[in-house]
Specification:
Layout: H1 12-18, H2 44-51, H3 66-79, E1 83-87, H4 90-101, E2 107-111, H5 116-126, E3 132-136, H6 141-147, E4 152-158, H7 170-179, E5 183-187, H8 192-195, E6 205-209, E7 223-227, H9 230-243, H10 249-260, H11 262-281, E8 286-290, H12 300-306, E9 314-319, H13 322-332, E10 337-338, E11 348-350, H14 362-368, E12 374-378, H15 384-395
């Protein structure tokens, strides 16, 4: 008997474990991996119907694979979406979103301070195609309304932003987009559906880097786009089928299992992050802490309205003494991993200005608030006291 997620209003905890699974005649309990490049037809006529899109079923794993489909259905259920397109990476999802919905002469409004690779993609690859890009501060909603043009087709935000933890008013941004015939896409990599569901606030598309919290153990690279709009889904699927930025079946299986524990991991890490942020804010070597869960965050109330169950695992803080001091803190840790990735059960630390956002210009980093004294920590699931002791060792240097 297969699970029907539409039969009852199942809770997210149940959907994260059950949605998308379709048991084979072998009656397996766990989700299977379909490691195959192609699928067999019963006749030439059946094959012709499949390739002509006249019949459902699996054709070729670049665009139809049961394991990938199971992951897509499970993530869509958690996002409150009808459709999902899985991709080879988070940046492949960004590429699929932009190249399938934009053309020469179109205009995009994007948030200052987004993930550096997204900003780089827009400036280096979309602009040469004749697509104009405007960047606005995410916490200045009025500037987004003022930036809209007749040819504006896409508003693209990340909320909270990485690494400065700026929050966007998703409902207000959705209204601006829809009043002008544009779509709102939200990068929800940081919050995940365990804490925030942008579709509930009017977003048309939710973008994920499944590499991060959805995997949760730093094993695989992947991305996804979810939506309730069938026309947008057709564009995403068509681009993925033709262009081939495909998620592998093995990676989909890893992410499928990662979704089962997503809520537990993210909410536990969020609780630890709030306590760690409070501790950092009181440390004599720390100049500033940016964490949405702190009352000192300028958009704490907005974050509390949009994020349920926690404020996420990422913390950024500025240290006294500039870049040299920041590097001493990072070099002083012994347990926390020095890496640009985040979202793992293992806590990570990095210096954004010289790693994840190093390819931005000095002006772009300044606009995003990414200074040389800024450190980003993603809290994992180690004992909180051990994380504190490790950071105290670095801060003491």
């Amino acid at each position: 008997m297969n699970f029907d997620p539409t039969k009852y209003p199942y809770a997210d905890e149940s959907l994260a474990i059950r949605a998308g699974q379709l048991r084979s005649p072998e009656r397996e309990h766990n989700d299977p991996i379909h490691l195959t490049s192609s699928f067999v037809f019963g006749s030439a006529a059946e094959a012709a119907e499949g390739f002509a899109d006249e019949a459902g079923g699996n054709i070729y794993s670049r665009f139809t694979n049961p394991t990938v489909r199971a992951f897509e259905q499970r993530l869509a259920a958690l996002d409150g979406a009808d459709y999902c397109t899985a991709t080879a990476s988070g940046m492949a999802a960004v590429m699929t979103l932009t190249l399938s919905t934009l053309k020469t002469g179109d205009h995009v409004i994007a948030a200052n301070g987004m993930f550096g690779s997204i900003t780089g993609w827009m400036n280096k690859y979309l602009k040469p195609l004749g697509i104009d890009i405007s960047f606005c501060d995410l916490d200045d909603t009025a500037s987004w309304a003022a930036a809209v043009r007749e040819n504006t087709k896409l508003l693209f935000v990340e909320s909270p932003t990485n690494p400065r933890m700026v929050i966007g008013d998703l409902s207000a941004l959705a209204e601006i987009a829809h009043q002008n015939g544009a779509i709102l896409a939200v990068d929800n990599c940081f919050a995940t559906p365990a804490l925030q569901k942008p579709i509930q606030f009017g977003a048309d598309v939710v973008m994920h880097s499944t590499t991060k919290f959805i995997d949760g153990q730093g094993r695989c690279v992947g991305g996804a786009l979810t939506t309730n709009n069938p026309s947008l889904h057709e564009k995403f699927f068509g681009f993925m089928r033709a262009g081939g930025p495909t998620m592998s079946a093995f990676n989909a299986w890893v992410f499928l299992n990662g979704l089962e524990t997503l809520s537990l991991r993210v909410k536990t890490a969020s609780a630890n992050a709030l306590e760690l942020a409070t501790w950092l804010a009181a440390h004599e070597s720390v100049a500033e802490v940016r964490y949405p869960g702190l009352d000192s965050h300028p958009q704490h109330e907005l974050a509390a309205r949009q994020m349920q169950g926690g404020f996420g695992a990422l913390i950024t803080f500025r240290v006294k003494g500039g870049k040299a001091a920041a590097w001493r803190v990072i070099d002083g840790v012994e347990m926390i991993s020095i890496t640009g990735n985040f979202g793992d059960v293992k806590s990570t630390i990095t210096h954004p200005a010289s790693t994840t956002h190093a390819r931005l210009s000095d002006q772009e980093r300044e606009q995003a608030g990414i200074g040389e004294d800024l450190i980003r920590v993603c809290v994992g699931l180690e004992a909180l006291e051990d994380i504190k002791r490790d950071l105290a060792r670095g801060l003491g240097r």
